[in-house]
Amino acid sequence: MTTPLPFPLAPEPDAAAREAGRLLFAQGAEFLKGVVAMDGLPPDDRPEVCFAGRSNVGKSTLINALTGRKALARASNTPGRTQEINYFTLTDSHYLVDLPGYGYAEAPITVVKQWQALLRAYLAGRATLRRAFVLIDARHGAKAVDEDIMGLLDKAAVPFQVVLTKADKVKPKDRDAALARTRAALAKHPAAYPELILTSSEDGLGIETLRAAIAAIA
């Protein structure tokens, strides 16, 4: 008998879940505001999900793929371009939140420290945050800086789910090695959701699965 892998890849959503995800995102998403301090956060009047990840892991590109809007979230090849907490409304039912990239960034050290502090304060203190999606490059797997954020989410009791990005850019052998590293890292984190989502913003892999997961979060 085969022993199931820890943290398996999430299965394809069933027809009902897929349709719920499609309908949620088909109603439209809009940029609301960029936040540079905790007192600038919008009212906590609806559930929200956030996207966290190392600089240039593809957070903005993934949000664009989810919403079907090529330029909704500003994507850049320059690490550290997102220096605010960017809020998007998903109809009147959810907030989508694009967080500043953590780790390496092409910016002055004082600026980096400022927005990293904001990111940490947000993760630890937002009552309506229902799930954090921690984005990890499928070519590399989890790194020490990713585990730092996972540890913060553990302490804040914020459930998080790993989303592997750029799956189209990795060979199966290398992808399996990255998955193994990620699973080993997740085993140490009690707030980790038990399934991984493998995505590609280029070819649409995993987009329906992620939409369905967000639609199921009340």
From TrEMBL:
UniProt superkingdom: Bacteria
Cofactor or coenzyme needed: Mg(2+)
The EngB-type G domain, residue ranges: 45-218
GO cellular component, one term: cytosol
Cited PROSITE patterns: G_ENGB
Keywords: Cell cycle, Cell division, GTP-binding, Magnesium, Metal-binding, Nucleotide-binding, Septation
Family recorded in the similarity comment: Belongs to the TRAFAC class TrmE-Era-EngA-EngB-Septin-like GTPase superfamily. EngB GTPase family.
Protein name: Probable GTP-binding protein EngB
Encoding gene per record: engB
